[in-house]
Amino acid sequence: MRSRRIPPGGAEPCPSRPVLLYNLETNQCVTKVGNSIGDFSCVNLHSSPPNMLVAGNKDRRVRVFDLRCAQAVCSVYGHQLGVSAVQMDEWKIVSGGEEGLVCVWDQRLATKLWEMHARHPVRHVWFNSHSLITANIPEEKNPRGSSITEDDPSLHRKYRGVIYSYEFSVDQLAVDSVLPICRSSYDELTGYNYNIGLAVPYDSI
Q1: Whole-angstrom Cα distance, residue 82 to residue 69?
Q2: Which SMART domains match (predicted)?
Q3: Which one of 1, 46, 55, 107 counts the least CB within 10 Å of its CB?
Q4: Could you tell me how far CA 147 lies from the centroid of its own chain?
Q5: Which residue, among 104, 103, 137, 133, has the nearest Cα to 117 in the 3D structure?
């Protein structure tokens, strides 16, 4: 008979729940990644670089996996609740959380570059070389009030979702850019307005 150690409090540790990747032609599992205790809540393979996968977890971490070795090559932590949306390119990661926080990370340095907070959970993130689109959707979309007018969602600002559009500007003179932190060049030592310290030199986007 095999004994199992029960931690103080009587609760057993939850088993790990990896992400499984299947070959659609053979219907066979080709690899699995991740051994975290929490559930993976979002993955993005389609938009990731070749042989890479980015995933968010309910343990509030964002992980980048190399599918060739099935190992995590980057893990960042900055959300207060579970991660709900992720996307990556060759060097940066954008993640959204259940608490409404959107983060831009440099995966090479495992460093947060920028963040923006909204009321509702982030349900969608998408970006390319110059734009970032996020969608925040409220958990409760059917408020109930004491009258007919109070039941109208349009009268309840806190129940309205919102779509944000940001610009990764390459124009050094665009001081009104929403993301000035992402337009630094190798010629300047400081290129941000949010009191966030970054390693230099910077990449030009």
Answers
A1: 26
A2: WD40 (SM00320)
A3: 1
A4: 39
A5: 103
Specify if 147 maps to a domain. Answer: yes
The pLDDT tens digits for 91-145 are 999 999 999 999 999 988 889 999 999 889 999 999 998 889 999 988 776 655 5
Do the beta carbons of residue 171 and residue 183 sit within 8 Å? yes
Provide the number of structural domains found in the chain. Answer: 1
Q: What DSSP letter does each residue of 109-154 carry, written as one string?
A: TTEEEEEEE-SSPEEEEEE-SSEEEEEE--S------SSTGGG-GG
- Residue numbers of the domain that contains 122: 19-183
pTM assigned to the model: 0.69
Between CA 53 and CA 93 the distance in angstroms is 11
Q: In angstroms, what CA-CA distances link 168 with 114, 184, 194?
A: 11, 10, 15
